[in-house]
Each structure stands twice: as structure tokens, then as C-alpha cells.
């Protein structure tokens, strides 16, 4: 299951082939132009629309939308949630990848399937389950309200839902990478007298750093951009439990389209930066 | 050194199995497994009778029909478009190829809500494409067609990135042999190349389909959310929650989860098959 792609995929190597296995130049260019049009229509056009719509009413409205106190608090919340969830899931990803790839044990395939599970589950379900556990009618609902602890419709709920949907990203990136690298270098380090942590930081980490970084930026992009799961647990309290994607929705439903697209352009920037780092990393990885 | 001795030695040599395994399983249980089990062992008073009532409710059935048909149609179209994109990306050199490659991943990185509002603006009756299609009598926004387009946007990278590596590893020898035996280029593609690409195409289709069934953010804006017509299953969960109908929401979610598990099984066996045929 994939919600992501392995880093080593786009090699873009030059294809060497004899004339017999090539199409005529005309066919070639028809296909390239057709593919270009598909890409422009399906993917590039929606991006351009975000920018034109956000600037439709001029820079004044654009700047006002981004400096609005509610937008600023949504941005702060989004950054805070990512700052909590990304490190936690990174630590999990590294430890899980170590356990899965450096040892042999029964049920390894099953464990990997369980790690992938959040990718297969609808994000709305990812939010719903935390309402069922911590909500007013949930397992711990009455205990939590008796002790005046808020989880659902507050920061902890948003963090939990985000942890769930971004759970597999780092592990998923590292497991195939570390599987390929095997255990010989680590074993050599141990034989030479290195301790466990030294082995990890001196031998394993330098080998996996680009893959790890790629997993982290994908995890971060999803953590900042998650909509469905967070929407269920947030309660949409303006200035309090609104993340940036939810703020886009609220403005849109209030027919403040330009403001909504202005906030959306901020998230688009996040996606573009993610893509740029990704292509830089895969070039780095290829060398 | 043979395989069995390395396997035996591995356990002794490298440290940290207990620690990393223990932490992984604990964290997995806390964040994923225990919360998910809340769907099964819930306290919302969902009995079998109630579950059956909700599951066979006309509006619920309609939402599943909308979800399955739009996700299926989107994944089907994506399989063809994805094949074209992967082919061009692997086989040809052309200016702007690097940007072409980067754009394909964008639906992975773009927050779904942004895709949702943007596609709605594009296809609404006064949008760039919507205003073109309206005189032709074609309405996209707030119809199942709009949902399908949003899911095509979300699903296309899955097909391209599954087909691409297989296409890259494909040996040109077979194609040369086919050409020397007198087959034209199209015939060679159809009878030599395409059969090799069927497993990854099916995997990509299944991945895009599975993602489409659960998708929420990009669909909720363009669908218009009309019960019986354009209401998708994840949205129905949401609206049941907003009416504090926890039992109903749980029932719809359980069905959706069941479909997801089935898809996960299908995808896993497809991937195993793809790996076997590529060797």
C-alpha cells in the first residue's frame, strides 16, 4: 500500500535503444504533447487557479487575508501540530525500521501491514475513532469531563488525529531502504567494538539520511495539510482549534473566496517547497 | 559464510531488538490499533439490528454507490492517462522533463482542501473550464462527474509511480526481437510491452481506487453533497457525527473500513504477483 512513493523511483536515465524499438518522430511528439496537455489540465491548471483566484481582488485583500488574526492563529496551530507530530512519528519510523530490517522474526509481514494501515483507512475514520475513544460518549468521555480534560475539539485531539494519518510516512520510506542495505556494515562496526548508539549514528544514519529526510518532509506536508481527520476532531472553533486547511474551508463557505484562496496559496507554497526538496533529494540519492 | 549462520548470528550481534520492537509495538497500539478497535468495541449502543438498519438505509447505500462508481471511474481513466505519462517520462527526452516529473507528485504533497477549492473554482459555471462546458450542456461541479475529476487528480500519481519503475526495468531485447520478426511498433507495444505492464497497471488502479474511496477533502467542495446523488460515504460519516448519531456514523465507518481492508488484501496480492512476473 502506498500513500507515497519510494525515493529511488525517478531515475530518468537516458534510454538506449535501437531504431527498431523507437517510434517515429511524429508519434513521439504527438505522445509528448498529449502527455503535456494531460499534465497541464489535470495538475498544473488547479495550481494556477489558486494563484489567480487569490489575487482576483488585488494584493490588499490578499495581504489582509494572511494577516487576519484568525489566519495567524490557524498558522500557529498548524505549525504547532506539525512540530509535535513529525518528531514523534520520525522516532517511531526509525525504531520500527530498525526492528523490522535488522532482525528476523515471525510475523514481520503482518507488522509491516499494520504499519501501513493508516494509509488504507479513510481520514474521516482516522478522526472518528478518536471521537469514539475520547468524545463525550466515548470510552473515557465521562472520566475526562469529570477531570476537566479536553481532548476532542481541542489541541490533543488534533494532534492524535494527525499522528494517525501521518503514522506510516517515515517508516514506509526507511523500511525498503534499510532492507536493501542489509546488516553487514552494522555487524562490522559491532565486531570492531562499537556500541549500539555509535553504530546507529556513525554507520546507519549516514546511509539512510536522504531517505529519512524525504520521509520527514512528506510526513510534514501531510501533517500541515491534513483536512478530513482534523475536521472531525477540531470542532472548528475560530482562533482556537482551526488549522490552515480548516480556515480555507471556513472562508470558502462564507463566500470569502479571495481570502480563502489566499490562505490556500500558503498551503500551495508548502507543497511546492516539498516537491523541490523531493526532487533535490532524489538527485542527491542517485549520485 | 552461508545464509543460516548469518541469520543466527544476526540476532546475537546487533543490539536493540527488545527496545525498538517494544517501542514500535507500543506506539503502534496506542496511536493506531487501540483507537481503531474503538470502531468494533464501541460504546455507542450499536447493535447488530441497528447496524443492519443503517447499512441497508437507502441514503447509506446511495453514498456507497456514489463512492464506488466515482472512485472506480476515476481510477479507470487514471490507468490510461497514467500509462501515457509514465511512457513519455521513461522513453523520451524533451525540454522541461524534470518539471514534468516533479508535477506528477504534486497531488501527494498538496493539501486536499486546496485541491478541493481550486477544482471547484475551475469547474463551476463561471470557472475557466466550467464556463466552456456549460454551453455544451455539461455540468461538472456539484455532479458525480466533478467528484470523478477530483479523484482523478488525487489518484494519477499512484498509477504513474507504479508503472514507471517496471517500464524502466523492461528489457529492449524483446522489443527488438519483435521488430526483427516483422511486427510494427504498435503491434510490438500491444503484444510485447503491454502484457508486462498489466500487473503494475492493475496495482496502480487498485491504489488509486482505494485512495478514492476514502478521500474527503478534495471531494467535499466539488460534490455539492446532495444526499442520494453526490454524497460520498466519508461525508455521510461526517454529517451523522454532526447530528450526534454516533451509532450511525460507526456503522457507515465499519462498512468503509471493511472495503478498505479488502482493497489492502487485493493490493498486497497484486504487488506480490507484479514482483513475481517481473522476475
From TrEMBL, chain A:
Any Gene Ontology CC annotation: plasma membrane
Where is each ABC transmembrane type-1 domain found? 75-278
A Pfam family hit: BPD_transp_1
Query: Which residue spans traverse the membrane?
Result: 29-51, 71-98, 110-139, 151-171, 257-277
Q: Where in the cell is it found?
A: Cell inner membrane
Q: Which UniProt keywords apply?
A: Cell inner membrane, Cell membrane, Membrane, Sulfate transport, Transmembrane, Transmembrane helix, Transport
Establish whether keyword Cell membrane is in the entry: yes
Recorded GO terms, molecular function?
ABC-type sulfate transporter activity
Query: Its membrane topology, per UniProt?
Result: Multi-pass membrane protein
What is the protein's quaternary organization? The complex is composed of two ATP-binding proteins (CysA), two transmembrane proteins (CysT and CysW) and a solute-binding protein (CysP).
Q: What does this protein do?
A: Part of the ABC transporter complex CysAWTP (TC 3.A.1.6.1) involved in sulfate/thiosulfate import. Probably responsible for the translocation of the substrate across the membrane.
What name goes with this protein? Answer: Sulfate transport system permease protein CysW
Q: Which organism is it from?
A: Paenibacillus monticola
TrEMBL record, chain B:
Primary location: membrane
> Which InterPro entries did the record assign?
CysT_permease, MetI-like, MetI-like_sf, Sulph_transpt2
Traced from the root, the source organism's taxonomic lineage reads: Bacteria, Bacillati, Bacillota, Bacilli, Bacillales
The species this protein belongs to is: Paenibacillus monticola
* Location(s) in or outside the cell: Membrane
Q: GO terms for CC?
A: plasma membrane
Task: Write down the PANTHER family for this protein, in alphabetical order.
Answer: SULFATE TRANSPORT SYSTEM PERMEASE PROTEIN (PTHR30406), SULFATE TRANSPORT SYSTEM PERMEASE PROTEIN CYST (PTHR30406:SF8)
Transcription regulation recorded as keyword: no
Record-linked NCBIfam families: 3a0106s02, permease_CysT
Q: Which UniProt keywords apply?
A: Membrane, Sulfate transport, Transmembrane, Transmembrane helix, Transport
Transmembrane stretches, by residue range?
A: 21-42, 62-90, 102-124, 136-160, 197-226, 246-270
State the source organism's domain of life: Bacteria
Q: Which GO terms describe its molecular function?
A: ABC-type sulfate transporter activity
Assembly and partners are described as: The complex is composed of two ATP-binding proteins (CysA), two transmembrane proteins (CysT and CysW) and a solute-binding protein (CysP).
Record keyword Nucleus present: no
Q: Which family does it belong to?
A: Belongs to the binding-protein-dependent transport system permease family. CysTW subfamily.
Q: What is this protein called?
A: Sulfate transport system permease protein CysT
Amino acid at each position: 500500500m502506498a500513500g507515497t512513493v519510494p525515493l529511488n523511483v525517478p531515475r530518468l536515465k537516458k534510454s538506449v535503444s535501437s531504431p527498431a524499438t523507437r517510434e517515429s518522430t511524429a508519434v513521439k511528439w504527438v505522445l509528448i504533447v498529449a502527455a503535456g496537455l494531460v499534465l497541464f489540465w489535470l495538475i498544473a491548471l488547479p495550481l494556477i487557479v489558486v494563484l489567480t483566484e487569490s489575487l482576483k481582488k488585488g494584493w490588499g485583500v490578499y495581504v489582509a487575508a494572511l494577516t487576519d488574526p484568525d489566519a495567524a492563529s490557524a498558522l500557529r496551530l498548524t505549525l504547532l501540530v506539525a512540530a509535535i507530530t513529525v518528531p514523534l512519528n520520525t522516532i517511531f519510523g526509525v525504531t520500527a525500521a530498525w526492528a523490522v530490517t535488522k532482525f528476523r522474526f515471525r510475523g514481520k509481514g503482518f507488522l509491516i501491514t499494520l504499519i501501513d494501515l493508516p494509509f488504507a483507512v479513510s481520514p474521516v475514520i482516522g478522526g472518528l475513532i478518536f471521537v469514539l475513544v475520547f468524545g463525550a460518549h466515548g470510552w473515557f468521555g465521562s472520566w475526562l469531563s469529570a477531570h476537566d480534560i479536553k481532548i476532542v475539539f481541542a489541541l490533543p485531539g488534533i494532534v492524535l488525529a494527525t499522528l494517525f494519518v501521518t503514522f506510516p510516512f517515515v517508516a514506509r520510506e526507511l523500511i525498503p531502504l534499510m532492507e536493501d542495505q542489509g546488516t553487514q556494515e552494522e555487524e562490522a562496526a559491532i565486531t570492531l567494538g562499537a556500541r549500539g548508539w555509535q553504530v546507529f549514528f556513525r554507520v546507519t544514519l549516514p546511509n539512510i539520511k536522504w531517505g529519512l529526510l524525504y520521509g520527514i518532509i512528506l510526513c510534514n506536508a501531510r501533517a500541515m495539510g491534513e483536512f478530513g481527520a482534523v475536521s472531525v476532531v477540531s470542532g472548528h472553533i475560530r482562533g482556537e482549534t482551526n488549522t490552515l486547511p480548516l480556515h480555507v474551508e471556513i472562508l470558502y463557505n462564507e463566500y470569502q473566496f479571495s481570502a480563502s484562496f489566499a490562505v490556500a496559496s500558503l498551503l500551495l507554497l508548502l507543497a511546492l517547497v516539498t516537491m523541490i526538496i523531493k526532487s533535490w533529494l532524489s538527485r542527491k540519492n542517485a549520485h | 559464510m552461508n545464509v543460516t549462520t548469518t541469520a543466527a548470528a544476526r540476532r546475537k550481534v546487533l543490539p536493540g531488538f527488545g527496545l525498538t520492537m517494544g517501542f514500535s509495538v507500543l506506539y503502534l497500539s496506542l496511536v493506531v490499533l487501540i483507537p481503531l478497535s474503538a470502531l468494533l468495541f464501541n460504546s455507542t449502543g450499536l447493535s447488530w439490528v441497528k447496524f443492519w438498519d443503517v447499512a441497508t438505509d437507502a441514503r447509506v447505500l446511495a453514498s456507497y454507490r456514489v463512492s464506488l462508481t466515482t472512485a472506480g471511474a476515476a481510477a479507470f481513466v487514471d490507468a490510461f492517462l497514467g500509462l501515457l505519462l509514465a511512457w513519455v517520462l521513461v522513453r523520451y527526452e524533451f525540454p522541461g522533463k524534470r518539471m514534468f516529473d516533479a508535477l506528477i507528485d504534486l497531488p501527494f504533497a498538496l493539501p486536499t482542501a486546496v485541491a478541493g477549492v481550486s477544482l471547484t473554482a475551475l469547474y463551476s459555471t463561471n470557472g475557466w473550464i466550467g464556463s466552456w462546458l456549460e454551453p455544451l450542456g455539461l455540468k461538472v461541479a456539484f455532479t458525480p462527474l466533478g467528484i470523478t475529476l477530483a479523484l482523478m487528480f488525487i489518484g494519477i500519481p499512484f498509477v504513474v509511480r507504479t508503472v514507471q519503475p517496471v517500464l524502466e526495468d523492461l528489457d529492449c531485447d524483446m522489443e527488438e526481437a519483435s521488430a526483427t520478426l516483422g511486427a510494427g511498433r504498435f503491434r510490438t507495444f500491444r503484444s510485447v510491452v503491454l502484457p508486462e505492464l498489466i500487473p503494475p497497471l492493475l496495482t496502480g488502479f487498485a491504489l488509486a481506487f482505494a485512495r478514492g474511496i476514502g478521500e474527503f477533502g478534495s471531494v467535499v467542495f466539488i460534490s455539492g453533497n446532495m444526499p442520494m446523488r453526490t454524497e460520498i460515504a466519508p461525508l455521510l460519516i461526517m454529517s451523522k457525527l454532526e447530528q450526534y448519531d454516533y451509532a450511525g456514523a460507526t456503522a457507515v465507518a465499519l462498512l468503509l473500513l471493511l472495503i478498505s481492508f479488502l482493497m489492502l488484501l487485493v493490493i498486497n496480492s497484486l504487488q506480490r504477483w507484479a514482483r513475481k512476473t517481473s522476475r
